[in-house]
Amino acid sequence: MTGLSPSGDIKPLLDDESQRPRVITPFPSPKLTDLSMFQGEHKESSYWGTYRPQVYFGVRARTPKSLVAGLMWLVMKDGKPVMRHFCENSNDLKSFGWKEHNGRDFGRQELFEQDMVLETSFVKSEEGSLGYGGDWSIRINVQNMLNDDEVKRTSGSRQDVGNWQMHLKSQNHLETHYCGFKTPDIVNLSGLVQQNLTAQEEKSGLLQLSDSSEDSSNIYVFQISTTNQSTIDIAFVSGIKEETSNMENRIMSLTGLPLSSLLEEKHIAFNAKFNECFNLSDKLDPETLVVGKAAIGNMLGGIGYFYGQSKIHFPKSPLAKSEDDFLLYWPAELYTAVPSRPRFPRGFLWDEGFHQLLIWRWDVHITLEIVGNWLDLMNIDGWIPREQVLGAEALSKIPKQYVVQFPSNGNPPTLLLVIRDLINGIRTEKFNEADRDKILSFLDRAFVRLDAWFKWFITSQIGKEKGSYYWHGRDNITNRELNPQSLSSGLDDYPRASHPNEDERHVDLRCWMYLAADCMNSIQEFMGKNDILVTEDYSSIAKLLSDFTLLNQMHYDKDHGAYLDFGNHTEEVRLVWKEVIHEDGHLSRELVRETYGKPELRLVPHIGYVSFFPFMFRIIPADSSILDKQLDLISNGNIVWSDYGLLSLAKTSSLYMKYNSEHQAPYWRGAIWMNMNYMILSSLHHYSTVDGPYNSKARTIYEELRSNLIRNVVRNYDQTGIIWEHYDQTKGTGEGARVFTGWSALILLIMSEEYPLF
Q1: Based on the domain organization, do 504 and 570 belong to the same domain?
Q2: Looking at the structure, do residues 243 and 319 belong to the same domain, yes or no?
Q3: Looking at the record's lineage, which domain of life comes first (predicted)?
Q4: Domain count of the chain?
């Protein structure tokens, strides 16, 4: 079976060796996660962690069939008990999040409930442990609720950690009950617990578990009830042998005063490392420092471990669409940060590059392993699924329409931002010799995968004109969207050409490809790989895409003084209510798209984040009058400037804050997003430091924008305890996903004035 490749060459759709479709065939090179730096002591030390970002508090190991622990609690709402377990994007819980987390063996979180405050702490200890991965302990402090005994112990045995026990200790009087369940996954656990509680309440009038278990139970839930402020310590010890005589000492070292001392020690170390990494203590007020610590704490505390198989679109019949038009990717694990624990608790490819710009400054080893995990998900054609939905828990938190991944669609290659940063870090001697050698070893193995990734982009997303590219995957037959979305760009509903076709030229993708080519050229030169076979001439491609004259010919609009997309476009498009006749004959009134003007090939007249990509990637010469135009656009209060940050779409755009369909509220059509503000701020900083007639102007705008962003995020955090997904374009209030400490955590790098170099 054969087919056309994106470059037009004939190549087999089936991999000859395995006779499986190429789209689900792994890339044939050694995995990055098999490097020795990720094995041995490193692997064991990172085995246990708070790797369940989708729940309010959870612990698991980095293995597919892990022992899993988590926290639930009951609250009364409208006279009925409500279970808290999986993070929810609602205001029922006032706020929650990590105040401190070091990404490895310590974290402290606060959860503000209606009538109480829960503080959960996690710490690992290798001292005295005989089991793989060591011992760990959890402390739960309960405050504002209406008193030295071991209450419960549970135990088991696993091949990885050996015999294990979990001990519950408290200085307070606690009432405990339990129930064992047999269930294939943990997604429905809250419902099972609530059913058991309801049944017991009907029998006895008491809201307590049944103190029973099903045959072959694989999940046990322990209910702890207390009537006042309480501190509960839960110690996990592993590698237990019958002749072990120090069990009590091990338990004591993980509970009570020894645990308090260990947590205080980790707290002090966290603050010291925060000061060392970001050097902010003398620059900012205490309220701002709290937000900075929450940013890095939540970013690190949001790192998760996932295992499963992605669903990949693969039509099984050319005649009809089917819900079964997908294949399963190979079983894979993913160690990654997540954008938002309640809303997006899974891996997103383009988000991850922004995450790692922050994380590598804290712990470069975590960054290398996460980037390695992502690159190991590459298939034989160099494609990486942009959204990773691995396992039942991840699947339970995503709308059905976003589960299946399309192999024609990409995502911005932001991981190259991180790799460029690491190379520049080596050049400026930011790393010690050991870390430098690990980065070089990583890049040496990663190069062949990065080369394949680049080739996938440069063939699959190429446009008609030389040096042009466009995001594939836009719906060119829809009558439901005002402007067909470009999910693969990461900017979703940002306005593009009204009528998608292959004539499109997307200025943001062109700039991403410039970054990719320039970064690959830098790696090739830095690593001395000029003598090996590579698929592309990176230097020539980077030179072509940085050609200022060619860029202006393709994308610059002199009337607007802005860079714009190009495509088949008309402004005369509206959403109107119409009576729609369905296949079964019934009528419904629906909002559909109507086109009143004939589309034509032209520049698309929407100014916003996309317009500033040549500025962000510093393609504009420092002495060009066009740079002056960009500074004017950025600082114009009638276009994208506000007192809270730069708007995603100009107020002058015909689609500013417009719904894209009946149920698609404006997303990238005005709201203030931190990742793009960070990139623009980074270039303002750059142009303010290089020689040129506009450096003073760039400095003034830089200082005011930086101040606006910090002040607004801190103000919102003071009011809500939350770092938000995006911020309102007129009032600056937090909106969208709560606890969005993915790229919104870049506010910490804005505070410390740490920006990527190009």
Answers
A1: yes
A2: no
A3: Eukaryota
A4: 2
Provide the pLDDT confidence category of residue 242 given band limits of 50, 70 and 90: low
For residues 560 and 633, what is the distance between their CA atoms, to the nearest angstrom?
9
Whether 116 shows a pLDDT value over 90: the answer reads: no
Residue pair 144/120 in contact by the 8 Å Cβ criterion: no
Q: Is the pLDDT of residue 148 over 80?
A: no
Angle among Cα 341, 309, 458 to the nearest 5 degrees reads: 90
Give the integer Cα–Cα distance in Å for 628 and 697: 9
Give the domain-ending residue among 211, 243, 278: 278
In a domain, 683, yes or no: yes
Examine residue 103 and state whether it is found in any structural domain, yes or no: yes
Q: Are residues 572 and 642 in the same domain?
A: yes
Return the DSSP state at 671: -
DSSP 8-class letter at 458: H
Asked whether residue 484 is assigned to any structural domain, the reply reads: yes
- Classify the phi-psi angles of 632: left when phi > 0, otherwise alpha if psi is within -120 to 50, otherwise beta: alpha
Looking at residue 65, which CATH number applies to its domain? 2.70.98.110
Q: Which of 114, 150, 144 is nearest to 230 (CA)?
A: 144
Both tokens of residue 737? Answer: 């996903």
Is residue 267 domain-shared with residue 378, that is, in the same domain? no
Per the listing, tokens 């779409």 go with: 649
Domain boundaries, position 588: 292-752
Distance of CA 444 to the CA centre of its chain: 26
Find, among 345, 461, 321, the residue nearest to 394 by Cα.
Answer: 345
Closest CA to 498 of 406, 596, 576, 409: 596
Please list, in sequence order, all residues whose beta carbon lies within 8 angstroms of the beta carbon of residue 659, skipping any fewer than 6 positions away. Answer: 482, 575, 665, 666
In this structure, what are the phi and psi dihedrals at residue 4, rounded to the nearest 5 degrees? Answer: -85, 130
Residues 271 and 393 in one domain: no
**The predicted structure's pLDDT at residue 348:** 97
- At 524, phi and psi to the nearest 5? -60, -45
Element (H, E) at 97: strand 95-101
Active-site residue set? 492, 725
Cα dist. 533→525, 529, 536 in Å? 14, 9, 9
Q: Which residues contact 409 (CB under 8 A, 6 or more apart)?
A: 386, 471, 472, 473, 487, 488
Q: Give the CA dihedral 601, 603, 605, 611, nearest 10 degrees.
A: 150
User: Residue 98: beta bridge partners?
Assistant: 109
448 residue type, one letter: V
This prediction has a pTM of 0.94
Residues 408 and 262 placed together within one structural domain of the fold: no
Are 262 and 300 found together in one domain?
A: no
705-710's contacts with Cβ under 8 Å and 24+ in sequence apart are: 705/634, 705/645, 705/646, 705/677, 705/680, 705/681, 706/681, 706/750, 706/753, 708/642, 708/643, 708/644, 708/645, 709/644, 709/645, 709/674, 709/677, 709/681, 709/747, 709/750, 710/288, 710/747, 710/750, 710/751
Length of the chain, in residues = 758
Q: What contacts 141, CB < 8 A, 6 or more positions away?
A: 117, 118, 119, 120, 121, 229, 230, 231, 232
Alpha-carbon gap, residue 687 to 74, rounded angstroms:
54
How are the residues of the chain apportioned to helix, strand and coil, as percentages rounded to the nearest 5?
Answer: 35, 25, 45
Query: Do 588 and 711 belong together in one domain?
Result: yes
With respect to residue 192, please indicate whether it lies within any of the assigned structural domains: no
- Contact 486/473 with Cβ under 8 angstroms? yes
Among residues 554, 565, 634, the alpha carbon closest in space to that of 606 is found at 565
Helix axes 349-362, 256-278, angle to 10 degrees: 100
Say which CATH number the domain at 455 has.
1.50.10.10
Q: For residue range 410-455, list pLDDT tens digits in order.
A: 999 999 999 999 999 999 999 999 999 999 999 999 999 999 999 9
Residue with tokens 């990720």: 38
Closest CA to 110 of 270, 290, 338, 306: 290
Q: How far apart are CA 599 and CA 593, in angstroms?
A: 14
Mean pLDDT, residues 176-202 taken together = 90
Closest by CA position to 233, among listed 135, 313, 314, 134: 135
